[in-house]
Design brief:
The chain has 2 helices and 2 strands. By secondary structure, it is of the alpha+beta class.
């Protein structure tokens, strides 16, 4: 195992998680601890969205949370690409 990830993808971990009070079984190539950490993150985001929009139906709450996660992912990817370009430019100067 490396950084919580199972190296052999055939060895999937089944982990019970709770999101918005609902139990789910998640099967993945990560350790149970890492899967729970990810589920807790999603649960916290959904709870935060629910507090902001208390009358939103669950399906729309899930879509809005997904869009917020996508925005976060795009921002991190853009920051990563910018960092790589900056490092490449610094390497060229040497």
């Amino acid at each position: 195992m490396k950084n919580g990830r199972v190296l052999n993808k055939r060895n999937k971990t089944r982990t019970k998680v709770k999101i918005l009070g609902q139990d789910y079984i998640v099967k993945g190539a990560y350790s149970g601890e890492k899967i729970k950490e990810m589920a807790d993150y999603v649960d916290n985001l959904m709870e935060e969205t629910r507090r902001r929009f208390p009358n939103l139906p669950l399906n729309k709450l899930a879509i809005l949370t997904s869009l917020n996660l996508a925005e976060e992912l795009f921002r991190v990817k853009n920051d990563y690409e910018l960092l790589l370009r900056t490092l490449e430019e610094e390497q060229k100067k040497k």
